[in-house]
C-alpha cells in the first residue's frame, strides 16, 4: 500500500510595495565590493605588507647582534681576549715560580726543605703557582767551624741559585755569609791555640794574615762583592 504525502495547494500571492521614505535595493556583490573598497586606495591594508623571508630576518638579526661597524670588537670578544691574556700570564708566572723554587731546593740539598706554593685559580678552573718558598737550615755546626763554613757555602749558593734572586734570597745569602765569617774567626783562633809558645810579636802578623786570607777566600766565592748591598751581613 503506497502512502503519498498530502500537501496543501499553495496559490501565488502578490506582495504590495512597502511604504515609507524609500525602497532599499538588495545588496549585490558589486555593492559589497564598493563598500569594502571605499577607503583611500593609497592607504595600505594590514594584509598588504610584504612577507619577510627567513633569510631576511636572519640578516636583520645578524646586523643587530653582530660586530659593530668599522670592525670594532664586541663586548664578548673583548672579554674573551682579557681572559686569554690572564691565562697566559698565569701560566708564565707558574713556570717562573716553579723554576725559582726548584733551583733553591736542588742546590740546597740536605739543607733545603720542601717547596711550599701559593696558588691562584685561573679562568680555566686550574690552579697556578703565583708564589713559593723553600726553608733553608742556617744553623751552624756546633763545635766544627770548618763544617759550618762548608755548610754556609752551600746555603749561600742555594739562596743565589735562581736566575733572578729575590730580596729575601739575598738576605738569606747575607746571613749565611755572616755565619761563615764567624766560623772563619773561630777557625783562626783554633789555629792560634795550636802554637802556645809563639811570642806576641809572632802571633800578631799571623792573625792579620789569617784574616786577610779569610776575606780573600770569601770574596772569591761566586763573584761575591763586598760593595754589593745585597750581600751585606745582617744581625
Automatic annotation (TrEMBL):
Residues 192-217 have a biased composition (Polar residues). It holds the Pfam family SprA-related. Residues 1-19 have a biased composition (Low complexity). Residues 34-70 have a biased composition (Basic and acidic residues). Residues 1-80, 188-235 are annotated as: Disordered. InterPro entries: SprA-related (IPR021973). This is SprA-related family protein. It comes from Marinobacter segnicrescens.
Amino acid at each position: 500500500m503506497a502512502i503519498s504525502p498530502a500537501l496543501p495547494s499553495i496559490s501565488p500571492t502578490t506582495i504590495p510595495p512597502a511604504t515609507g521614505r524609500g525602497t532599499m535595493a538588495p545588496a549585490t556583490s558589486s555593492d559589497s565590493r564598493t563598500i569594502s573598497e571605499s577607503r583611500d586606495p593609497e592607504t595600505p591594508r594590514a594584509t598588504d605588507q610584504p612577507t619577510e623571508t627567513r633569510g631576511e630576518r636572519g640578516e636583520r638579526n645578524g646586523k643587530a647582534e653582530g660586530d659593530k661597524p668599522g670592525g670594532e670588537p664586541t663586548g664578548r670578544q673583548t672579554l674573551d681576549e682579557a681572559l686569554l691574556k690572564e691565562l697566559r700570564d698565569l701560566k708564565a708566572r707558574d713556570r717562573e715560580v716553579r723554576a725559582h723554587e726548584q733551583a733553591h731546593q736542588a742546590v740546597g740539598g740536605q739543607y733545603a726543605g720542601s717547596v711550599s706554593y701559593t696558588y691562584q685559580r685561573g679562568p680555566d678552573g686550574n690552579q697556578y703557582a703565583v708564589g713559593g718558598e723553600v726553608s733553608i737550615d742556617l744553623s751552624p755546626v756546633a763545635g766544627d767551624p770548618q763544617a759550618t763554613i762548608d755548610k754556609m757555602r752551600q746555603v749561600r749558593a742555594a739562596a743565589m741559585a735562581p736566575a733572578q734572586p729575590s730580596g729575601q734570597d739575598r738576605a738569606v745569602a747575607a746571613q749565611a755569609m755572616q755565619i761563615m765569617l764567624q766560623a772563619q774567626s773561630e777557625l783562626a783562633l783554633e789555629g792560634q791555640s795550636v802554637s802556645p809558645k809563639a811570642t806576641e810579636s809572632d802571633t800578631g802578623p799571623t792573625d792579620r794574615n789569617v784574616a786577610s786570607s779569610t776575606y780573600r777566600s770569601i770574596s772569591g766565592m761566586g763573584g761575591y762583592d763586598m760593595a754589593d748591598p745585597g750581600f751585606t751581613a745582617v744581625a
